[in-house]
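ping. complex inputs:
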Amino acid sequence: MKTYVLNLAIHPPATRIGGKRLEELVFDVTRQALAAAGVEREEVDNVTIAGCDELDGRSISSMLLAMPAGAYMKDEIKCTDTGLYALLLGAMRIESGLHDIGLVVSWNKSSTAPFEDVMLMRCDPFFVRPVGLNASIADGLFAQAMAGKFGITEDEANEATLRAYARAVHNTRAVDRGIPTPAGIANSPYVSFPLRQGHQAPLTDGAVAMVLVSERWLARHPQYQPLARLAGFGWRTDGYSLGADRLSNLRSLHRCIEDASKRAGLHGLDDVDVLEFDCQTGYHAAAYSRALGLAEDARVGPSGGAFAQNPYFCTGLVNAAEAVLQVSGTAGAVQVPGARRALAHASHGFAQQANGAAIFEKVN
Amino acid sequence: MQNIPVAITGVGQTRFKIHHADKTYVELAQDAARLALDHAGLEPGEIDAVVFSMAPTQFMGINDADRWAVEHIWGEDKPFMRVHTGGATGGSALQAAYYHVASGLYRNVLVVGADRVAETPDAQHILNLIWDRFYEFDFALNTVTMAAMAGQRHMHRYGVTQEQCARVVVRARRHAQKNPYAHLKGDITVDDVLNSPIISWPLRRFDICPRSSGAAALVVSDLSTARRSTTKPAFINGVSSITHTVFMGDRMGYRAEADLSDHDAFIRAAQECYHQAGIVDPAKQIQVAELYDPFSFFQFPQLESLGFCGRGEAAGISDQGGFDPGGLVAVNLSGGTLCTNPIGVTGLVRVADAALQVMGDAGENQQQDVHNAVATSIGGSTQFLTCTILGDDHIGRK
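pong. complex structure:
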């Protein structure tokens, strides 16, 4: 593929960013990404954004957010699945040959949204909503399915949670919240058996912006050094109905990684040095590692993932930013030595209905 | 640089009406998807990816209506992405599908969506919620009052009259009679329009689009599939969009880069599109226009910004039949948005009707010798604009 990440910005996350309107949050991160890239907004020929109206609390949230995302008088499209998909669509715009330099921006102020109410309203009104399904219950069902499939115990989920928190402590881009005690997780109340409150990644506010450029643009601007090449990506969806097979087969996870690996010319995850998964709970972390044969693997989640920051809708793009920093050797204290390829993952929908993956490669 | 020919190979629409009592949202989407696949001569298994066209979810009251639809539209195990740019959603979704194919990643992409605008007790209340909470929420701003202010300005600047706007409505309803999918249709008179009640001056009831329910789908393919599945695909030769400021006050006065009542951001969008499609004289090279016109005066500034005539000339040309079949360009032969407005797919319907003209499948509304067609969509506070050029042959980018 011929798409490169010229530079990026991750807004400092917080449980609640109270001093800024959402527009200001988006403006600041976009401005910072352009400054880091050393390009002016006027040079940008397209903007691809990802936002969630329901969590933003507006019927068409991009009406107010497209401009601060740099899209004034630009060719702009918004997708609504997950922040990572803005990167994928933005990359397709570059790969088409029609565009050369684009902004990719996503955000979420989880602190201002009635999160579980929004999740409940995801449900179809006939069968699922009357049951009261929300994100916690869907994740609990997923945890049950994973416990059944892989024999994941509460202890294993506790350890996966603690491991993520322990890594997040070293990440300067994480919310500074320390590591909970093992007993604090193990004794936290159940939110949906076997999922405990302590297993859930806390929601945060945050935003990410990236500047993508084409190989052609780089050839015309040899003074610029991109952070990474987007080597491959893929995304797949599963069905909506939460049957036993759907909850346990992890099909779209496997399939999106296969697609991304194939496009990157890789034979599998053995060729990848860093993997940043979108793990909303400790059960997710344990399940992904089991499903992909990565248990106890130091390559997995060096940033702390969602336990470092979790601007829910945008978390996948945070993962992508962390992956880019890894292959550019600028991940700071959580840098994996010698990282040449890094995979970022996002999931969305109830109990991981859909998954996306992007693989970044070091630029020599 | 990639320059992969991309074409529309299948079009599907349901009938549009106030309410489909016998169908759920996802069943409506399925109907349109099936029709588009049949038109393209493809089976669901031949679709590589899906783009879902859905605007504010509050119209249905289901946040994940697109994901609910996955199995119904044969999207399971496929790449699936939802696009949403308000009223421009369908135009943006089509362009997203274009990028799927033009990037070389996918060969056949299904673009599909549905809307049930009339199911919400008051669509204009939902559309009040699109505005800025602090500055605009509280003074009854919705899409009708928004358009009314722009309409007043347009009429004031160019001397356009209510009668001239009414003639657009009469023409649209007449054309819609030959469109089996259109919502509003019939023989009405200018007096009928002028005697309909004022909703927000100068807009009267008949100057305003209906709230429609229904679904639309397109199949977007690469060249090999296009040549195999249909004898006459509609090539997507130009795609562009422009996003403007949300604040209408910033689109007036000497400091504004574009004017609220002129839709003149379309000038930039059209220039880019025409450049891609090799259009140097739209009035001579484009035979059909499917314009996003939920309000009667919307056609005039768009036609001017798209370069079919000079600023302030469109209403006069309209009076003389210049936008009828055989005129300067045939505008909204389908009846347009004035007759059918399922918001989340309206932009897709514009492209669908333009594609049918290029493919020669527009039935009783078919215009002769259509080589190029333009389709537009508009969303937000008239701030998201898309422009798409379809042609009967592939025009390679320079």
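DSSP finds 14 helices and twelve strands in chain B.
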